[in-house]
Amino acid sequence: MNQLPVKRRRGRPPKSSAASYQNTRDALIQVGLGVLTQKGYSYTGIDEILRQAGVPKGSFYHYFDNKEAFGRALIEAYGQFFAKKLERSLSDASLSPLARIQAFVDDAKAGMQKFDYRRGCLIGNLGQEMAALPESFRSLLCAVFRDWESRVERVLEEARKLGEVPQSLSCDQMAQFFWTGWEGAVLRAKLEQSPEPLDRFAQGFMALVRGS
Length: 212
Prior knowledge:
By secondary structure, the chain is an all-alpha fold. It has helices at about 20-40, 45-55, 60-65, 65-90, 95-115, 120-130, 135-160, 170-190, 195-210. The chain has a domain at about 70-210: Tetracycline Repressor, domain 2 (Orthogonal Bundle).
C-alpha cells in the first residue's frame, strides 16, 4: 500500500540531527541575548534575531512557539550564564570574601567596557520593561534575582564569620540591597558610558557593610 508523503509544517527546515537542532536553537539564544541586553525586549523584533543568527525567517517557530517562549528561554539562559560568571569571582578561595565581591565588580566593569557600554544586564532591562512584558516573565525574573542574592548573601555570611564585617550585619538584606543598587549603577554606566557609577556604588557598598 502506498503511503502519502508526510506534509511538513510550514517553514520547518529539513529533518536534521538533534545536535544540529540544538546548535541552531543555541545560536538564536546567543544572538537574542546580545540584542536584548542592548535594546530590550519590546524594541527587538524576531526578524532582527533571525537575520543575525543566519536562520531562515520561517524557521523560528520550529524552535520556539512564539516570542514569549523565546523570552522565557533567554531569561533562563542569561540567569545560568550570569550565575556561572558570578561564581568565578565569589568562589575564588584565594581572595577574602569582600575581595571576591570586588572581583565580580571589576570583571563586570571590564565586560561593559568591552562592549562600549552598549550592553547592560538582561534581567535588569526586562525588570524595567515589566509593565509591557508578558506576565509569565515576572516570576522568572524574581527567581533569578533571588538566586543571585543568595550567592552574595553566602559570601557576606563568610565575611561576617571572618570579621570583615560587623556581626550585626543583616546579610540577606545587604545582598538584596547589593543587587538593587547594582542594577541602578549598570543603568547609569550605560547612560554615562563610564565605569564611574559602578565604582561609586561598589565603594559605597563596601563602606556600608564594613560599618565605616
